[in-house]
Each structure stands twice: as structure tokens, then as C-alpha cells.
Amino acid sequence: MHAKELLEVERREIRALHYTWIAFFLTFYVWFNMAPLATSMLQTESYLTPDHIKLFLIANVALTIPGRVIVGMALDRFGPRRVFSILMVVMAIPTWFFAFGDSAMQLFVSRLFMSIVGAGFVVGIHMTALWFKPKDIGFAEGFYAGWGNFGSAAAAITIPTVALQFFGGDDGWRWAIALSGLLMALYGVAYWFLITDGPEVGTHKKSRKAGALEVSTWKDLWLYCLFIVPLYGVLGLLVYRTQAMGFLSATGAIIAYSVIVLMVTYQIYKAISVNVPMLKAGIPEDDKYPFKSVAALNVSYFANFGAELAVVSMLPMFFAATWKLDPTAAGLIASTFAFVNLWARPLGGYISDKVGNRRLVMLIYMFGIGIGFTLMGMLNAEWPLFIAVVFTILCSVFVQGAEGATFGIIPSIKRRLTGQISGMAGAYGNVGAVFYLFIYTFVEPNQFFYIIAVGALIAWVVCYFWLAEPEDAFGDEYKMSSVDRQIAAESKY
User: Fold this and answer.
1) Half-sphere exposure of residue 9, counting CA atoms within 13 Å on the CB side?
2) Are 247 and 108 in contact (CB under 8 A)?
3) Distance, CA of 143 to CA of 124 (rounded, Å)
4) In this model, does residue 205 exceed pLDDT 60?
């Protein structure tokens, strides 16, 4: 697939791709509508402090973690069209609550629920996999994700202007956020009628079991259970920080920790209850897949997308504080990190398609992330702003490319489980974001960049040893196992 084909809108799959990236774009626009307005919020709302903003940034990515896992399960059961439409409409509600909240607690709670909108990413990944063949999936997924991810850059560029110039006044930031929620809700309604789940009835294939990811071996089951723990356990960092900020009492914290333990326990129970009967019955050889590849992609997405979410959240403030810029200028310059999404992420998927070795491409990009954030860690006010922008763009090229390479692999691992695998890997991106933003509350920006660089290099090591090149990753059709054919036959009746 080539870039010029994106203009062939008479083709149904090309229209589906455009409809879907626009949906993703709007969810990201809403998701990151606060970071560019943080300075304005501090100036107009006397009850807010910089520590409140840092807490809101953590809350902004927290519930995306369970949200992506749950959405991944819903995808494999109900299909991406219905899930995406409902998500966009429902998530407009906490957006409006945040826009017109009049206390730090209201802003915190609404931002926490708003974070679920970040689950929209995995919906489009699944939809795109239903419309495109394996040989084209890298570029298609990369284009979808790159142009959708640009929503965060668009927010950084336009939200301050809408708030300060169009609406103006102390409440300008509120109306700008409310408007973004309205646009997303309207498109959510339109998306329901614009698209179908794949080119033919029956393209969407349900997994055998809902509630947990299917695995192929007993060893994979234990590894799966191990990887469930951080998905929910990382929320303990949010509870700790929330209690430290005075938003949660000691009793409330104990209750919250208990709920997290119950969530982890329940998900492990579901993983065991779903998989043990199938493992005892025996998994057909042609239906097996290596879960360690899923685990490696979880870790890589922790290190690349987790880094992007964390950096996009703090970069406008970093540029404003380091080079003494006004909010509009800082937002515009910081947007260069996400602006690269327009071409770097599709490029990562395209290279993954063309090189003929998706694993090698993944390793190269992850190593580049480590180098890029090391360079960003060296920045301070003595460096020319131009050089800072160059380093930011260079680092972003590797971050976005690695994300594109990650989802160039996922659909080929096990197609009928694409929703759940995408959901889990996507959730690990948010685990990384929560972890990194929690660390950010204790360190200086330069130290923060070095920590992210170390995380990327650790992920490189994990991918080197665990990530396997998927079978039939460059074919005309996805691999169909005997179980896939059985499910397809049953779905006809």
C-alpha cells in the first residue's frame, strides 16, 4: 500500500480508514485538551496549584488502563463500530463536567473519568485490521494511529487560541474544553451510520470466550497472570498521590487499595477460569500463538506510547518554564512532538511492511528512543530553542515509529484476538504513562527524560529475547486456524 492510495476515497476500505482516524483524532483532541490550558487554569482559578495540575495529569491517563482492557473485550464481542460510537458519545459527559467544575475535587474526579476516552485508540486498531490485508496492515495502522494521534498536537495548537482569542475571559478555557466534547459526541453519532465492521458480514470474528485473553500453553497462562498485575496495580500510584494531596482520606485510600487488589484477583481468576478448561482439552497446534510476543509488545508500548503520553502532558510546561514562553507559544512549540505523528507513525508501519522483518524494525526504533530521550535530557535554558525543537522532533520520530511498528505486528499475532491483544498492549501504554508521570512529580524534567531513556533500553532487551516474528505477517490473508474456521462456520447459523 502506498500513500497515494489514501486519496482513492471511492474504495470502501479507504473511506473506512479516514472515518476511523477522524474518530480517533477527536478522542485524542479531547483527551489532551487540558495540558495546553494548564497555565490559564492556574491563572484564573485561585484554588489550583501546580501540584494539582500534576495530579490531574496522572488522573488523565489512569482509568484508560482498565478502560482499554474492557474495551478490548467488548470489541471482540460487539464489534468496533458500536463500541467507538458509544464511547465518543458517553465520554462527552465527563468532559462537560470538567469544563464547568468549580472545585479541585470536581476537576479531579471528572478528569479521572475522562481518561477512559483514551481507550478509543484500540477500537480503531481493530476496525482497521478488519478492513486491510496483512501485507498492508503496517501502513494502514500507522496512518490511522499517526493522524489520529495528531489530535494531541491539534489540541496544543488550537485549544489556547480558542480559549484565549475566540472565547476570551476567565472562563475561556472552560468553553474551549466544552466545545471539544460537543464535537466528539456529534461525530460519535455520525460514525454509527458511516461505517460497518469490515467489508462483509461476518468479517468481524468473535473470540471463543469473553472476559479474558485466550492463551496456548500453561506457561503462557502464568505469564499472562503475571502481566495482569501491573495493569491494575499501577493505579495504586494514583491512590498514593491522591491521598498525599489531601483528596483522599486514610480510610478512603485503604478502600481504594482493596478495590485494586480485588480487580487484580478477579482478572487473574477470569484468566484461569477461561483458559484452564481449554488447556486441559488441548489447544490445536495450528491455533497456538506465543504469548511472550504479546508480553514483549506490552513492555515496548509501555516504553514508547507511555513515554509519549507522559511527555505530551508535561512538554508545554517544560518549554514555558525553561525558555520563558507564553502559553500559546509553548503549546505551539511543544506540539512538534505530536505533530510528527502525521508522517513518522505511518512511516514506522510502512517500513515494517517493506523491510520484511517486523521484529528487526521494532528493535531499531526502540533503541532510537533511548538515544532520543538521552539527548532531550541534556537540554536546558543555555541551549538554543531551535536545537531543543530539533531534539524533540528527532526523539518523536523514533517514538512514533516504534508505536507504528508495534501495531504493525499485533494484528498478525492472532487475528480473532486482535481486540484483546490491542487492548492489553494499549493499556500498558497507559501503565507507562501513569508510572512516568508519577516519577515526574519527584524529579526535574531533565532527570525525567533520562529515566524514560532507560525504560526504552530495557524494553529493547525484552523485545530482543521475547518478540518473535509473526507467521504470515506479509501475506494476502490472515492465518486461519482450525478453530477460526469452526467459529466462522458457527457464526453462519
Assistant:
1) 3
2) yes
3) 11
4) no
State residue 137's pLDDT score: 76
Amino acid at site 199: P
List, in sequence order, the alpha helices (H) in 115-244: 120-131, 134-161, 172-194, 218-233, 235-244
* Per-residue pLDDT tens over the stretch 123-150: 888 898 888 877 777 788 778 877 887 8
Q: Between these two residues, 26 and 5, which has the higher pLDDT value?
A: 26
Residue 484: the pLDDT is: 66
Task: Report the candidate in 13, 165, 123 with the shortest Cα–Cα distance to residue 422.
Answer: 123
Q: What are 417's three cell numbers?
A: 484476538
3-state secondary structure of 347: helix
Angle, helices 134-161 vs 120-131, to 10°: value is 140
List the alpha helices (DSSP H) in 287-384: 291-323, 327-339, 341-355, 358-377
Lowest mean per-residue pLDDT among 165-179, 260-274, 439-453: 165-179
Distance CA 351, CA 460 (A): 18
Distances (CA, A) of 240 to 253, 356, 361, 365: 7, 45, 38, 34
Angstrom distance (rounded) from CA 211 to CA 277: 14
Contact 295, 225 (CB under 8 A): no
Q: Of the ranges 55-69, 359-373, 407-421, 461-475, which is most confident?
A: 359-373
Cα–Cα distance measured from residue 76 to residue 36, given in angstroms and rounded to the nearest whole number? 35
* pLDDT for position 182: 95
Residue 395 has pLDDT above 50, yes or no: yes
Query: Cα 113 to chain center, whole Å?
Result: 16
Confirm if 417 and 361 have CB atoms less than 8 A apart: no
CB of 57 within 8 A of CB of 107? no
Place of cell 531499531: 364
214 contacts 421 by C-beta, under 8 angstroms: no
Q: What is the DSSP string of 254-282?
A: HHHHHHHHHHHHHHHHHHHHHHHHHHHH-
Mean pLDDT of 48-54: 85
pTM (2 decimals)? 0.78
Mean pLDDT of the chain: 86
Element (H, E) at 108: helix 104-114
In sequence order, which residues have a C-beta less than 8 Å from that of residue 5 and are 6 or more positions away? 11, 14
Whole-angstrom distance, CA of residue 8 vs CA of residue 44: 47
Q: Is 319 helix (H, G, I), strand (E, B) or coil?
A: helix
In angstroms, how far is CA 360 from the centroid of its own chain? 23
Yes or no: say if 457 and 153 are a contact pair by the CB < 8 Å rule.
Answer: no
Q: How many CB atoms lie within 10 A of CB 471?
A: 13
CA distance 126 to 75: 8
